[in-house]
Design a protein that fits this description.
There is one protein chain. This protein folds into three domains: about 80 residues, 2-Layer Sandwich (Uridine Diphospho-n-acetylenolpyruvylglucosamine Reductase, domain 2), CATH 3.30.43.10; about 120 residues, Uridine Diphospho-n-acetylenolpyruvylglucosamine Reductase, domain 3 (2-Layer Sandwich), CATH 3.30.465; about 80 residues, UDP-N-acetylenolpyruvoylglucosamine reductase, C-terminal domain (Uridine Diphospho-n-acetylenolpyruvylglucosamine Reductase, domain 1), CATH 3.90.78.10. Helices cover about 25% and strands about 30% of the residues. The chain is built from seven helices and 20 strands. The longest helix has 19 residues. The model has no long low-confidence stretch (mean pLDDT about 95).
Length: about 300
Amino acid sequence: MILTPLQIKEIDNLVPGRALREIPLSRFTSFKIGGPADVMVEPAGLYDLSRLLMYLNDENIPRIILGAGTNVLFHDAGFRGVVVRTKSLNRMDFQSDGVEVATVTVAAGVPLPRLVNRAGEFGWTGLEDLWGIPGAFGGAVVTNAGAGKVSMSDPLVTIRLLSDRGEPITLNKQDFHSGYRSMEIPPRSVVVEGVLRLTRGQSQAIEARMAAARERRQNGQPSGVASAGCVFKNPSPEQPAGLIIDRLGFKGMSVGDAQVSDVHANFIVNRGKARATDVLELVETIKARVKEEEGLELDLEIRIIGEQPPND
């Protein structure tokens, strides 16, 4: 779909000064890969976001919600439609009973590392194992981000969303269902806020768990290179995808500037000028070999978005 000049003008009016045209998506993702979006917008608050969602729905304009862009791969031809960034939704509010329990209201655009660090500083426990997971809170909820035995859904008690028409929806603990790297929410709804329940912890114990999480990530994952985190979901706790891929000899394998990390085989890194097609060729090669050798179907943990070039 190609947006008309009138539609672009209407979007400009709905989010004045916050709409960019033909902007390379590589600038907004941790993979540093992706062609241009027709329009990228960053609503200043829920009112603007609600009106925008209603307009895009009424006009049947394709849209995608983008947080920090840490687990996505945009195609080289970009995205035909509107990319809606949640960065400006950055409220975070701690409320406690003064003793044992805190409730934390977190907006979708809050960086997850900021939330984890702030909770630790205040002495609230429950998030330490998530230290170092990049991305924004909204994306962490949608993907039920986790590490070890801790997932985002564990402390989460309320999810607040907007429907595709911009109408508010509230889901309490009993209303939403989560799984491994997944969260069941109404189709096409947008996470705008969540409420977490944390408990009081001992400062030394919190610091020790965060230090352990830090050490695991620093020693076991690539750093200083562009990537989108783990590419595949683990088939099971006993069979991590990275271990399987490593066993089959993929570490260091490259297509163009896309390379299977030699630190952690479930990471594909961009050595500088990788294209989405390079990454996808590696992905398909790995999936086919794992299916042939191990009899396992690897499912993607990253999300692939956008329009494929004609020769894909």
